[in-house]
Write a structure and sequence with these properties.
Length: about 450
Amino acid sequence: MMASSIPAGFRALPLSAVQLSLAAVLKCGQSFRWTCYPLSSSPGTESCPTHEYRLCLRDRVVCLRQSSDYLFYRSVFPGEHLSAAQEGVRDEDTLTWLKDYFQLDVDLVKLYNQWSDRDQVFNKVKSRFSGIRMLRQDPWENLVSFICSSNNNIPRITKMVHALCKKYSPPLISLPPPEFSESDSQGPAAYHAFPPPSLLAAPEVKSTLRSLGFGYRADYIQRTAKMLVDTHGSSMSNSESREDCEEWLSGLRDMSTEDAREELLKFVGVGRKVADCVLLMSLDKKEVIPVDTHVHQIAIKHYGLRTVGGSKGKGVMTPRIYDEVATKLADIWGEYAGWAHSVLFTADLKAFSSFGIEPSTPATSMMDVGTSALASSSSKRKHDEIRSEVEMQRKVMLMGAAVVAVAAAAAAVIVAVHSDEDDSSDLSSVEDASSPSSHARVKRRRSSD
C-alpha cells in the first residue's frame, strides 16, 4: 500500500489554489505573523505542498500546507494528550476558524471573472495572481499592525510585530521545523500569541517598544491601547478569552462604514489609510480601498487618473486625491472593490515581480515526455488517494462528534437519576457533583513595498 498523500497529522479540505493562494495571501502585506517553512520535494511531486505556514492563536498553533486541490491543516495545543473524539472536536473548531479567517464562503473565481469583464487591466493579471483574497483578521491585531505600517515596509513591519508578541506574550508552545533533523541548525521555535490591549496600555510600554525599534509608533500603540482599555474595559466576559475592548472593536463590523471609520480615526496614529486597512481586512467593509502611493500610481498609470503638478503619484496624499482615487477604482470594481484592489496592489509589489512565472526549461526530449506522463499519472493517483482519505476523515470526525454527544447525554441521565435518589439530602452535594468543568477556547493594509 502506498503511503498516505495527506501529510501525517493533517486533515484535508478540498480547495483549489485558484480560490486561495497561501503563497500570495500570507505574504502580500495583510497579516504579518505567519511563519513560513520550505518543504523538500522530489521528482514527480508537482502537486505536493512546497511550504508549511504557521500562526499562533491564543490557545493553539495552526499549521497549513497546500497542494493544487487541497488545503491541509492541523492545530497543535499545549498541555495534555487528547482522546480521538476530543481531537476531532478541536479539528472541527480549527476548520471553522479557517473558513472564517479566509472567508471561504466567498467564491473568488466568480469575483475574478466579474472584475475581468469590467476591467481589462485586471484581466491581464488575473491568471498570474490568482487566489488572492482578503483575510478576516482579529481587529485588535490588525489595528496595531497597521499603526506599525506608517512609513514602513513589509519585512520591517513583520519584524516589529513578532518582537512585540515575543516581549508581551508568553510562549504558548515550542515546535520544531516541519522537517526537523539532528543536523538541522534551526531548532524548535517558540510561538507567541498576539497580546491583548491591557498588556500594552501601561506607560512604560512606550520606552520598551522604542528600545525594540518601533520609533514614534511606540507612543501611538501604547496610547491607543490605553484609550481602548479606559473606554471599553479589559475584563474577560466570554468563552473566547477576549477582553471587553476587543469585543467592542469586533462590534464595529455591525456599524456602517462611515461610522466605523469615524470610531477608528479617534485613535492615536490612525489616519484615513490605516483606518481603511482595518475596515477592509478585519471589519467586513469589502468595498473600502486603502489608498497609498502604490495605489495612487496604479490609478494614474492604468486608469487615467490625472496627475497633480506632475507628481505622478509621488506627492503628498491629500484628502481630495485620496477620495478621487478610491471613488475611481470603486466605480470600476464594484461591491468587492477592496478585494480587487488587493490583487492589483500585490501585482505591483517588487517582492512579487517573479511570482507566478514558470522558470524557463530546455527543449523537451522524448525521455522528458515519458517522465512527464508518469508524473501526471502519479499525481492523479495521489489526488484519488487524498479524496478517499478526506472522506474517511470526515466520517471519523462525525463519529467523534457523535461519541461526545452520546457521552454528554449519558452524563445528564446519570445526574438526573442521582438527583431523584438523593432528593431528601443536602442540595450542596448534588451541586458539587454537577459543577461545570472549565472549557478551553477555540483578518489589510496596504504597506509600502
